[in-house]
Amino acid sequence: HVQLVESGGGPVQAGESLRLSCKTSGYTAGRYCMGWFRQAPGKEREGVATISADGGTTYYADSVNGRFTISRDNAKNTLYLHMNSLKPEDTAMYYCAARPGWVGGCRPTDGFGYWGQGTQVTVS
């Protein structure tokens, strides 16, 4: 049974930093491409960042490039999103997601089938 559980969200002031974590279980994390997505009220879901199964390749949306860093620790089955210089427009529910790393690519549009419940980030 695949599970992804996010944590680390909360209210922060603009300019501050936050680190999100996503603990995974039920599958071999090191074989899966993983990503962070977000959705603000009234807006479509946005792919924020993705990372390949071995951690060697990353992708970032233009809106966060240079401020956010995605990383993973396969030994701990944990995905991270380090967010710096947060802006009010970063306010959203943040979700981690996974897809098989041995099929297809590792971009937000490549179809992620496993999702967590989300953690809220509010920047004021």
Structural overview:
The protein has 124 residues and is mostly beta strands. It contains no helices and 11 strands. The strands form 2 sheets. Strands 2, 4, 5, 6, 9, 10 and 11 form a 7-stranded mixed sheet that branches. A 4-stranded antiparallel sheet has the order 1-3-8-7, with no helix packed on it. A hairpin with a 6-residue loop joins strand 5 (46-51) and strand 6 (58-60). The protein is globular, with a radius of gyration of 13 Å.
Distinctive features:
124 residues; 0% helix; four-stranded antiparallel β-sheet; seven-stranded mixed β-sheet; 49% strand
What is the topology?
Blueprint (H helix, E strand, L loop, with lengths): L2 E5 L2 E3 L5 E8 L6 E8 L6 E6 L6 E3 L7 E6 L4 E6 L8 E9 L13 E2 L3 E5 L1
Shape estimate? globular
Q: Sheet bearing the most strands, described? A: 7 strands, mixed
Number of helices: 0
Q: How many beta-strand runs?
A: 11
Which structural class matches the secondary elements?
mainly beta
Note the quaternary state here.
single chain
Rg result: 13 Å
Could you report the average pLDDT, rounded to the nearest whole number? 95
Strand percentage lies at: over 45%
Distance between the termini: 37 Å
List SSEs in N-to-C order: EEEEEEEEEEE
Which consecutive residue ranges, at least 5 long each, have pLDDT under 50? none
Helix content range of the residues, please? under 10%
